[in-house]
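Re: the 55-residue chain
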Amino acid sequence: MSDTPNSQLSTLNSQLVPPGYKQTEVGVIAEEWDVKPLGEFATVTAGGTPSRANA
């Protein structure tokens, strides 16, 4: 058997994607949508403690 488990899974997934949708690295999404990094839409920050002066 020349098919690898990953290629078999890819084939199965492509058969399960309904019309109007597409398989992407993040899953199945509408064909009109694009996968883009979150940073293109918002500034992502973390690790800060809110100021108590503004409470």
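Residues 1-55 form one domain.
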